[in-house]
Amino acid sequence: MKPDYAKVTIAGEFPLHPKWNATIYRHSTVALHVHGYRARLRVAEEDFEIYPGDFTITPPNQESQYTLTAPGHHLCIHFRPAKGAAPAWNRSRCWRDLPECGLIRGTLELIIAIRRRFDLGAERSSQAQGLALAAVLSALELLDQGENQRSPRPRSNRAVTAAARKIVENLESPLDVPRLANSLALSQDYLSRRFKEEYRVTIPRFLLLRRMEFARRSLRETTLSIKEIGAQSGFPDPRHFNKVFRRFNGVSPTTFRQLAE
User: Fold this and answer.
1) What is the spatial distance between Cα 64 and Cα 203, in angstroms, rounded to a whole number?
2) Which of 74-88, 161-175, 245-259 has the highest mean pLDDT?
3) 3-state secondary structure of 30
């Protein structure tokens, strides 16, 4: 599913304060937020407990109200889905502790940086749209899986957590699930099943998310060449790295670095 989206209408970092708790917000757009505070969010007749780092999606034309005990900020983008894409946004969602969250937050931060730096002419607007689409599609993938904050999560499995740690510590290495399972004294089928139960994604998908998150951070925070970053991210072929990065983030590694500078 890859619906086309109109350009983002709002992108920024916005403050909230307890003195505004009585304020009712209503937007004609879909809103994707990452929250930096503890609060209660009421959307229409539904209540959500919000914690720092949580993500929410709220559909258009619904009233929302925040109740905070201390001031805070949230990142957000507001956008209008194309015709035919509306069913995915019929109700509000809230989720946390999922691998996609780092990707979505990084994309939001970059979109906001672009908005602050440029007047967004046609070319910049197009690039920003690609980034926004990457964030929205990542969120949409979660929503299509039916994941939200109130979904029960199985009890943590130490072996599965160890597997995730091994993956993150060896991003540059090819994924070998049988060897990974063997190193943890588990069967491949058992590890794959429990891993998806725990992290809500398959092992290959988890690795790709971590690699992209590492690549984005390296492009923003280091002076390493793109070839070096690709190799450290597990893509020794620069052309393959460029292709995967572009598909996943909406722009090439070079453009991403230029926009983030």
Assistant:
1) 36
2) 161-175
3) strand
Residues 6+ apart with CB under 8 A from 227: 238
Looking at residue 160, the DSSP 8-state letter turns out to be H
Answer whether residue 195 shows pLDDT above 80. Answer: yes
Contacts of residue 118, defined as CB under 8 A and 6 or more positions apart, other chains included, come to 124
Q: What is the pLDDT of residues 216-248, one digit of tens each?
A: 888 888 899 999 999 999 999 999 999 998 887
93-95: strand order across its sheet: 10-16, 72-79, 30-35, 55-58, 93-95
How much is the pTM?
0.57
User: What are the C-alpha distances in Å from 10 to residues 14, 81, 206?
Assistant: 11, 14, 30
Cα separation, 204 vs 210, whole angstroms: 10
Query: What six digits make up the tokens of 168?
Result: 């993150």
Q: What is the pLDDT of residue 40?
A: 93
Whole-number Å distance between alpha carbons of 82 and 65:
26
Task: List the one residue out of 179, 180, 178 whose CA is nearest residue 168.
Answer: 180
For residue range 60-96, what is the model confidence (pLDDT) as tens digits?
A: 889 999 999 889 989 888 877 766 555 556 778 887 7
